[in-house]
């Protein structure tokens, strides 16, 4: 059995950190650093009709953000696909295989922001390019962000279709065994780096 695409995971950290930085009150650009033990990028998909959950444990993000200058905000994120963990070794091996993420050819997935928009209150939308298996797609992620001094938290949920990035090929191209939709859940805690 091979699980559905975890493509959405790649964009998660970048969105979250950009959102966190957006709420800073300083007028100068501010960098944020993720607190790894308090952050997660989790996903859910359906396999043989049952929900399966997992996460990527290795991801890194660089963020620079000036809330007074949204045009120059930037965030880049990279996730090591081999760090996938669904609690099942056979399933995890399948995720990294040629029919799914093909980590021998594409060991990482990336996200690069293009814009950030305030959606009211603590809500934001981050737009950017998500690249998986050398396929790039523009995506949007809604985030809820709260900031308390030099610490911030962000959370968001998005649903993606694994077919967009050709994840799940050959015998896995249909949704008979593994569904097309992947739900990504992001929980990030970060601290000001400056």
**End-to-end CA span:** 46 Å
Largest sheet: 8 strands, antiparallel, barrel
Uncertain spans, ≥5 residues at pLDDT below 50?
1-27
CATH domain class: Mainly Beta
CATH superfamily: Lipid/polyisoprenoid-binding, YceI-like
Number of helices: 2
Strand content: over 45%
Helix-strand category: mainly beta
Using only CA atoms, what is the Rg?
A: 16 Å
Bulk shape: elongated
pLDDT averaged residue by residue:
80
CATH topology, by name, is Lipocalin
CATH architecture: Beta Barrel
Q: What's the arrangement of strands in the largest beta sheet?
A: 1-4-5-7-8-9-10-11
Assembly state? single chain
Number of domains: 1
**Tally of DSSP β-strands:** 11
**Helicity level:** 10-25%
Order of helices and strands: HEEEEEEHEEEEE
Features:
elongated; 12% helix; Lipocalin; mainly beta; disordered N terminus; eight-stranded antiparallel barrel; 194 residues; single chain
Question: In a few lines, what is going on in this structure?
Answer:
The protein is 12% helix and 49% strand. The protein is mainly beta.
């Amino acid at each position: 059995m091979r699980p559905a695409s975890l493509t959405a995971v790649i964009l998660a950290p970048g969105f979250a950190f950009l959102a966190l930085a957006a709420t800073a009150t300083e007028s100068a650009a501010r960098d944020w650093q993720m607190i790894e033990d308090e952050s997660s990028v989790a996903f859910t998909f359906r396999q043989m009709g049952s929900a399966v959950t997992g996460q990527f444990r290795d991801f890194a993000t660089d963020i620079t953000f000036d809330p007074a200058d949204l045009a120059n905000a930037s965030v880049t994120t990279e996730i090591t696909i081999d760090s996938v963990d669904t609690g099942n070794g056979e399933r995890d091996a399948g995720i990294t295989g040629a029919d799914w993420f093909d980590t021998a050819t594409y060991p990482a997935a990336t996200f690069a922001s293009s814009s950030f928009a305030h959606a009211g209150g603590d809500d934001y939308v981050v737009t950017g390019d998500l690249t998986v298996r050398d396929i790039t797609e523009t995506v949007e992620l809604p985030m809820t962000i709260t900031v308390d001094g030099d610490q911030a938290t962000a959370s968001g949920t998005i649903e993606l279709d694994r077919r967009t990035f050709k994840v799940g090929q050959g015998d896995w191209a249909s949704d008979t065994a593994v569904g097309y939709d992947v739900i990504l859940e992001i929980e990030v805690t970060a601290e000001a780096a400056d």
